## 1
Amino acid sequence: MVDANLAKGECTGTIKFTPPLYKQRYQFIKDLVNKYKPKKVADLGCADCSLLWMLKFCKCIEVLAGLDICENVMKEKMHRLSPLPGDYLQPSERTLTVTLYHGSVAQKDPCMLGFDLITCIELIEHLEATELEKFPEVVFGFMAPAMVVISTPNSEFNPLLPGVTLFRHPDHKFEWDQAQFQSWALDAAGCYDYTVEFTGLGAPPPGAEDVGFCTQISVFRRKYPNTGEPINLEKPTENSYRTIFKAVYPSLKDEKYLQNAVVSEVINTAQIITRRLLDSFNSVYKEHSNGLVEMKPDFQLPRYFMRHSKNPSLAEGEKLADDRNMETYVSGNAVYIPLIKIFSIPKVNKLCGTFENLSKLITGKVALSNDGSAVVISTEHEEKENE
Amino acid sequence: MTGRARARGRARGQVLHTTSLAAAVGPPGFQSQQLGQPRLQLQPQPPPPAEGEYVGRGHPKGIPAVPEPPSEAGKLQISAGFQELSLGERGGRRRDFHDLGVNTRQAIEHVKESKTGTSGAIIKLSTNHFRLTSRPQWALYQYHINYNPQMEARRLRSALLFQHEELIGRTRVFDGTTLFLPKKLENKVTEVCSQTRNGETVKITITLTSELPPTSPTCLQFYNIIFRRLLKMMNLQQIGRNYYNPNDPISIPNHRVIIWPGFTTSILQYETSIMLCTDVSHKVLRSETVLDFMYNLYSQVEEQRFRDICAKELIGLIVLTKYNNKTYRVDDIDWDANPRCTFKKADGSEISYVDYYRMQYNQEITDLNQPVLVSQTKRKRGPGGVMPGPAVLIPELCYLTGLTDKMRSDFNVMKDLSLHTRLTPERREREVGKLINYIQQDDSVQKELRDWGLSFDSRLLSFTGRVIQAEKIHQSGRAFEYNPQFADWSKETRGAPLISVKPLDNWLLVYTRRNYDAANALVQNLFKVTPSMGIRMNKAIMIEVEDRTEAYLRTLKQKVTSDIQIVVCLLSSNRKDKYDAIKKYLCTDCPTPSQCVIARTLSKPQTIMAIATKIALQMNCKMGGELWSVEIPLKQLMIVGIDCYHDNTAGRRSVAGFVASLNQGMTRWFSRCILQDRGQELVDELKVCLQAALRAWFNCNQHLPSRIIVYRDGVGDGQLKTLFCYEVPQLLDCLKSVGKDYNPRLTVIVVKKRVNARFFAQAGGKLQNPPPGTVIDVEVTRPEWYDFFIVSQAVRSGSVSPTHYNVIYDSSALKPDHMQRLTYKLCHMYYNWPGVIRVPAPCQYAHKLAFLVGQSIHREPNLSLSDRLYYL
C-alpha cells in the first residue's frame, strides 16, 4: 500500500504523488478494514464524508459514524451516504447504519462507544492546544475502540514541498516532525493501555530518506479485551453531539425486506416451474393436433410429474427431498407446486432457514392451496398466450 | 396490433405509449458503425421572424452577463458555456424542459389584451399547483466567480470559494461559475485569496452581475435548483427527472416489479404567480438485474434467436446501476466484449471492468462471460465540455427499470399496475398534499426556505374554469345528443344510418382452417348489423390459408385484384410479424384497404354483435365512408394534424404522420407521411405534404381553403423554440409559393398530452374529475403564451389528464373562445371511437398513421390510399 510512485518534476523540483496522497490515505484505511473486518467504524473529522462513502461499500461494516466540527462541510455531500435505489431493490444480508454527528473530538458522547475502529485522518493538526490536550482522554480513554488510526503531516518533509512556508494548510495549528509525533503517540498509548506502530505514506525521494514519509501514520491497538459495559457505565451519558444525518440501509434482517425477497423468489421459482410444465405439455398437445385429435377446451391435464429439469438449482433440489412430496401437479386451470419443493431451492432455503419460516413469510402474500402445502399458479393466462 | 377492434382504449384517455417491437435489429456491423457517430443536431435555424423576440436564458435583458472574459482559451470556454447553458445543479440536466423564454404570444395581435374564452358554465376547480411566495423587496444576487490562476475542477472551485464563509454566508448556490446569494455583498467586486491543498494561493474575484427580481427567468431556474435540494433533504431519491420515496415501495412479485411512489415537480412563472406544480409519479423498478433477465430469456428461446430477441427486448430500456444512482439508456449490446475487457481510466492507466468495480465499489462480478451494454452519452460534461464516449455497463450491475414491450402488451401486468398507479382525484390530491406536508414539517427544509426568504402555500390553488356545451352529433340528417358525463354516443346512434357508406360488393375474407367458425360467425353478424347502417353487403369471397405468414402473402398476391374493395384477415394470434407483412403488402405494393381481426375476439357469442358493429364501422371508414359529424361553423377551413412516431430500437427512424381535412364537415381526410432519419424531431418535408394537401383540397372543393389550422402533436419538451423558428416559417413559405393572390390565414397549435397539470372539480365537498368540455385558460397558463387546457375525454377510473394547447402562431384573428370551441369540436371526430377523445381527431389520425408506418410498414404507403382512413 505504500507503493506510491514518486515523481519528481525535473525543472521545478515539485513532488507529485500518484495516486494523490489523500487517496492513498483513504486506501490505507480501506485496506485495514478489509484486513481486520471491523463492524463498527467511526471517522473523526470526516469533512465531506469521502472516506465514509468509500467505506460504506465494505461489506463487513454494520455501523458507520462520522464526526466533524463543521456542519456545513458535512452537509455538502452527505446525501452520498444515503442508500441507493439498488440497495432497496436487492437488500443485502448485512445491516448498515450511517450516522453523522456534529461535535468536537474534545467532548465525550456515548454514541461513540463500542467501536472497532476509529480513524482520525489529518485531524489532530487542526486542533487547538486545549482540544489536543483532551483528545487522548476522549479517544483512547472514553471511546476506547479496539483500533485507532491517526495520520498527520510530517513537518520534516515540508522543505521538499513547493510553496510550503510554515504549514501545509492555513488552518493547521501545528505540524510535527517524526520525533514529536511518535513521542506524543507513545505517551497516549502507554497511558491508555494501547500498543502503537508507526508507518506512513508518500515516501521521500532518493537521497532524502531521512525525512521520512510525507504523511505519518500511527496505528494503535487496544491491549485489553473489550470488557465494554462495566467501564462504560461509569462514563457520562449525556449527549454532546448532535445527529445531523442518519441512514438505515435496507437489510434482509428486517422482516419487511425479507418477506419481499422471499415472496418474489417463491413466485419466480413457481412461475419457472409452471412454464416448463406448460412447455412440455404444449409439445404433447402439438403432437396430438398433428394427429388430428380434437382437443376439447375443457380438457384436463393428467397429473403430470416434473422429473426433468435443466436448471441445476432445481434439479439439485429435487434430489434432496422425498419424491412423493415433490410432485407438481395440474388441476383445473392451475398448477400446484408443493411448498416443500420450493423450499428445497437453495436460494429460498438460504433466505428462510426453516420451512416454518417460509410458510409464515408467504402466508397471505402468495396464493396457496387449501391445505397450504402448495403454491398455486393460475394457467388461464398462459394458455391464452399459447393459443 | 391488439386486435384492431379491441384497440379502442388507445383513442381515449390512456393512450398507452406502446413502443415498437418492430424494427428489426440490424446486423452487428451496422450498429457498431452507428455508435461512433455524434448525435445529429437539429437543423440549422433560420433567423426568427422579426416580431419574435427571445429572451435568452440565464440573463435578464439589458444587464451584461459576464465581465469581459480574458483571452485565455480556457476562460473563454467557461464563459461561453455559461452563457449558453446557464447554471444547473450538479448532475442536473441542462436542457430547458419548460420552454422558458419562448414568447410566442406577443406576436399575436388579437390576444395581447386577453386570451380567455367566454362561453360555457362556470365550474369551481382546484389544481396541483402551489404558490411560491417571497419576502417583499426580495431579490436574488447573481455573482460571477473568477479564479486566478484558472482552476478547472468544479469541486475545487467550490472548496476554494467556500473557504470564505464569513463573507458569502452559508446560504448559497454555486455551480462552479455562477454564485447566487440572498444578500448583496458590500462591494460590486470583491477579491479574496484561498489556498489549495498544495498550498497554492488562488485569487478569487467575486463580481456582482445582476440583481434579479423574483420573476426573472434565471430566478426560476434557481427556484428549481433549491427545490431539488429540498427534495434531497427529505430523503427522496432522484431517478431521472423525478424524485421517489424508497421507503414505501409497492411490490408486485407476480411480475417481478416494484413501484416507487414519487413526485414530478417544476416551478414556473404562471399567469399571475410563480407556482410549484407537482404531480404523483410512479417509477417502475425491477428487482432483477439485466443479467438475470438475460439468463431467464436464454432459457426460454432457441439459442440462435437469443441475441436478436435479447436486443429487441433490451435496447431502448432504461437501466439503473447498482453502485451509483445513475440511469442509462441501453443503446446496444456488445456481445464480443466481457467484464474482463479493459478500459483507460482518467489517469491513463488500463484496468479491467472486474477489477475496477471491485476496487471502486467492492462489487464482485461473478459471470465473466456476460456481454456488456453500451449507452450513448447525450450530455456534455462541464462547462463547454467535451462529448464523452459511450458508457459501457455490466449487465450484472444494472437493474431494469420500466416495462418491456412484452409487459406493456400484457393485459394482466397492466391491470395489476393500474391498480396502484391510477389514482382517483381524491387520492391524487392526498398524495400531492403529502409533498407539501413534508415541506411544511421538515425543519431543515423550512430553515433552508427561510434563509432564502421563500415559502410555499400549503393549499392547492383554486380558481374557476368553464364547461363548454356538449356538441350534437349529426348522422345523416339526424342530430343526436349524448350524456356529457360519459362523452360517448355509441348507444344513442346505434342503428342510425351513417353519413355515407361504401357497399361491400367484392371483398375477401382470409382465415385459417382453425378459425373457419369464427370467419363464418363474422360474416353472419356483419349481415345482421350492416343493414341498419345503410351498408349493402354481398357475401365475402372466403379463402382458407395455412397459418403461416408466407401463406397469407401468397394468397393476397393471388387473390387481391384491383376490384377488391377490402381484405379482411382473420388472424389466430397477435403475432406481430404476420400483421406487419399483411399491412406492408396491402399498403404499399398492392394498395387495398385491409382489416385484421384476431379470431379470439369473435369467440364470445355475447359480444360478437358489438364487435361486428365496430368492425363494420371501421371497414366503412377504411374504404372512404363517413360516419358522423358535428357542426363546424367556419367555412373554407382546412384542419391539419401532425404527429411523430419515434422508433426506439436500432436505426431510430422517425415517422411523421400528416393529415388534412378535405371537406366542411371534417369527415374526410387526406394523409401523407414522412420518414426521417434518427434523432430528428421536427418534420422536414412539411412543405411537400402541405402542397399535396392543398391540391387534394382543391380537387374536392374547386377552390383553396381560406383558413388553415394546424394541430401539431409530438413536440418534445424544450423544442418549442425550434418549432417556432423552423417549422412555422416552412409552412408560411409553402403557402406563399402557392400563388401571389393566395393569402390564407394560418394558425399553428402545439398539442401536448403529457402535462403534469391536473384539475379537480369541487362538487359537494368531494373532488371529482372535471366533466368533458372543461376549459382552463387562467392562472395555470403561461403569460408569454396563447395557451389553454381542455379536458375533453371522460375516464372511468383514475384522474383525467388535461390536454394543453399552445397557439404559437395565429393570423386568423379568431377569438380565443372560438378557437377553444373548435378544438373541442374536433375531439368528437375520431371515427374509431364513438365518443370524445383526448386530442383533436386530426392528431389522433396522424398518430395512427405514423404508428402504422413506423411499426409495421417502414415505407411510405402508396399515395393512392391517401384520401381514405386506411390506417385506422
## 2
Amino acid sequence: MALSCVLEPALSGFNFENSTRNIVLENGSEEGKIKAPKPMKTGTTIAGVVYKDGVVLGADTRATSDEVVADKMCAKIHYIAPNIYCCGAGTAADTEKTTEMLSSNLTIFSMNSGRNPRVVMAVNILQDMLFRYRGMIGAHLILGGVDCTGSHLYTVGPYGSMDKVPYLAMGSGNLPAMGILEDRFKANMDLEEAKSLVSDAIHAGIMSDLGSGNNIDLCVITKEGVDYIRPHKESPFNYKRQAKYKYKPGTTPVLTKTVTQVELELLDETVQMMETAGSS
Amino acid sequence: MEKQHSYSQVKGVSTGTTILAVKFNGGVIIGSDSRASMGESYVSSKTINKLIQVHDRIFCCIAGSLADAQAVTKMAKFQLSFHSIQMESPPLVKAAASIMRELCYSNKEELQAGFITAGWDRKKGPQIYVVSLGGMLLSQPFTIGGSGSTYIYGYVDAKFKPDMSLEEAKQFSINALALAMGRDNVSGGVVHLVVITEPGVKHIVVPGDKLPKFHDE
C-alpha cells in the first residue's frame, strides 16, 4: 500500500466514525429529521464476458435525471490502467470519481514500483475503499483486464463485496442482460462471438429497461492492447432536429438604449514584487 | 450456534447460506453451498466462494453480509500472516479464531457476519472454532451455521460420530449440505468441501446434479 496510496493513506483497522454521525443526522436535530440525500442513479446496463484471448466489456450510453435523458452519449466504460477498464453502474458521480481515484492510485503505483498493475490489485483497492464508506458510495462496478496472470473479470458492489466471474451484467437492466448471457455464454469463445454476445446482452437491457438506452459501447481488452469501440452500435432512433435553434443577430428588435456612466474612485494602490527566475 | 435472523436486513449481497465443519480422524472437513442472494428473491451469484483460506492449513467459512465477511477475512489474513512471521512458525487455529473474534466483537454494532474457523496445527491437531455474529468464540467437534443450518440440526445431531474416517466424514458433510440446500431457498448451487490434514489441503466440488437425492420427486 505504501507504493500506491499517496492520495488516500490506508487507516489501520475499521473506521466507523461516519456511521455514528450519519445515524445522529438521520435521527434529526430539534428542527426536524434531516433526510439523507437520494443518490442519482444512472439507470444502466453494463456487461462483461471473458473470452479466449481476453475480456469484452459493454455498456449502454444513457444517463437519466429522473424522467429526462440527461446525456445520450455518456461514457460508462472508464479507463483504469492501460490493461484494465471498469464499467460503472449506480450513482453517476460516484462511479466516475471512484474509478478516477483508482486510476490515479494505480498510475502512482506503476511509477513507484516499475510494475504493471494486476486486476486483482485494482479490485482490492476498490473493495477497501467502498467497504470503508459502508455503502454510501453507490458504485456497482464490473472490472475487467488482462495482466501477466491472465484475463480476469471481477464485480465489486457498493458495500464492498467482490466476486470473480466469467460473465456478468449489472445495473437496472441487468436482469434481461443476464438472461442473454446465461443462455449463450460458453467458455473460450472467439472474439466475434464474444462481441456479439455482449452487444446482444446490452441490447436486451436497452429494450427492456427504461433507464438504459441509446448507443452501445464495447471495450475489448487483450494482451496486445485495448480496442475501445465507441459506439459499437448506434441507436436507430437518432432524432435529427427539424429546425435551427440559433438566431441571427438582429432577430430581436431593439426598442430603446440607455447608457449610464458609473463613477469609480481610486481608494488604495499597492505594488507587490514577484519572485521570478532570471529571464534572458 | 445462534440462529441468524437478520438476513432480510443485510444490506447488499448476503450469503444466506449453509456452512459446516466436521472433525474426523486426522483432519477437518469444512463445507458450504455456493449461493449469494440480494434481497429475498434475487440470486446474485451461483458460484460464490465462501471457504476463504486465511493461512496454509486454516480456512474460514463465511455467513451473513458478503461485504462484511470479505473485509473481516482480509484483515484476519493480513494479521495472521504478520503474526506468523513474528513467531517464525505457522499460526495456531486458535490464533486465527481469536483474531476473527476480536474483529467481530469490537465492531459488533456495524458488522453482520458470522464465521466458522477450522484447520490443523501442530499443537492440537484438527480444530473447529465458531465465531458468531456478536463475537462469541466456541470450540466444537462439529458445527453448522447459516440460515440453512436450522433444517439440519436433527440430522447432524443424530448422524455425527466422533473419530469418523475421511470417507464417512465426507459423506456426512455432503448429505447434511444437500438436505439443507433442499429446504432452504437462500442456499443452493454446488457443494464446496475443503479437506484439511497435516500433509495438505484438498478442494472438492460436488455439482448440484451429483448431490444425493432425498425423496426429491
